[in-house]
Write a structure and sequence with these properties.
Helix content: 55-70%
Oligomer: single chain
Order of helices and strands: HHHHH
Number of strands: 0
Low-confidence stretches: none
Number of helices: 5
Structural class: mainly alpha
Strand content: under 5%
């Protein structure tokens, strides 16, 4: 998950362009619209909370867990699953 969610140079460029767009008041049609990665990996605490079911898990955390699971399934040449199948 750390490799999947980690920021790449492209993500840092997107964030910089958005920040500069806000500072310089660039017209709305010329602003950066792509979304960078979150930069947050799935933590052990989040996995424990998701597996126990006792604690509520936030939406972004569920998405990160789904991406990590689907990546592992893809490596094993199995079909991807949907969010509803996990949660």
């Amino acid at each position: 998950s750390k490799e999947l969610e980690g920021l790449l140079p492209e993500d840092r460029t997107i964030r910089l362009a958005k920040r500069n767009g806000r500072k310089n008041e660039v017209p709305a049609d010329k602003r950066e619209t792509r979304k960078p990665r979150s930069g947050r990996p799935v933590t052990d605490r989040a996995l424990a909370a998701a597996m126990s079911g006792a604690e509520a898990v936030s939406g972004p955390t569920k998405t990160r867990i789904l991406k990590a699971v689907n990546f592992l399934l893809e490596q094993k040449k199995l079909e991807k699953i949907e969010l509803k199948a996990i949660f």
